[in-house]
Specification:
The chain is mainly β. It has no helices and 14 strands. The protein has strands spanning about 5, 25-35, 40-45, 50-55, 60-65, 75-85, 90-95, 105-110, 115-130, 130-140, 140-150, 155-160, 170-175, 185-190.
């Protein structure tokens, strides 16, 4: 999850850059090893050290923690969820998009894990549920209801800057892989004040 796609809400964790087809998007999570003016070297748990070119205009975002009470009708959100034995979708996390990113990755799609999905949509209603709140999410062509319990991670996506790209910081990079294997970042989400980027 998710341009930002992350394209932020489209996020599928741990895609190994070396396995991505030529000119395809790649999503790399890791810890910054070294930084230069336009290059990051990341230590990725999946693929070892990965070098990524980061152009000057690359969008950098970060996250801030939020509470369940901060979610309200009209918000555009992304939610990674697991279908429970009760047949309902239970949120693992909810990320609240800024207005400038409304519509990013809109829709509902399956993720890598069985019964796991990602929904990027506008909240139409927020109602009480046995274990928290029930969100009704509307997107073009459909809607989903997702129960958000007390254990779900809730964050807001906020603007960041290149000052966050320092050795030791955890980042998630959405990049384009060229035919020669070069990875060029389209966006970076970085750790800020101890708040980790979205890994889904």
């Amino acid at each position: 999850t998710a341009a930002l796609a992350l394209t932020i809400g489209l996020l599928v964790a741990g895609r190994v850059a070396a396995q991505s087809p030529p000119s395809a998007s790649a999503r790399i999570s890791g810890v910054v090893e070294t930084v230069s003016e336009d290059t990051l070297v990341l230590k990725s748990p999946e693929s070892g050290n990965v070098t990524v070119v980061v152009p000057a205009d690359t969008r950098v975002t970060a996250l801030e923690n939020r509470r369940l009470s901060d979610i309200k009708p009209g918000d555009f959100v992304g939610s990674a969820a697991i279908k429970g034995t009760d047949g309902k979708l239970h949120a693992q996390e909810v990320h609240i998009f800024p207005e400038a990113l409304r519509g990013t990755g809109e829709g509902h799609r399956d993720m890598a894990r069985p019964e796991q999905s990602m929904t990027n949509a506008t909240i139409s209603t927020v109602a009480a549920a046995p274990q928290g709140q029930m969100l009704t999410l509307n997107y073009k062509g459909g809607k989903q209801q997702i129960e958000v319990g007390p254990d779900a991670r809730i964050v807001a996506i906020v603007a960041g800057n290149r000052a966050l790209l320092i050795p030791g910081a955890t980042v998630v990079v959405t990049a384009v892989k060229a035919p020669d294997g070069t990875l060029t970042a389209r966006s970076v989400q970085a750790e800020k004040d101890g708040v980790m980027p979205l890994m889904f």
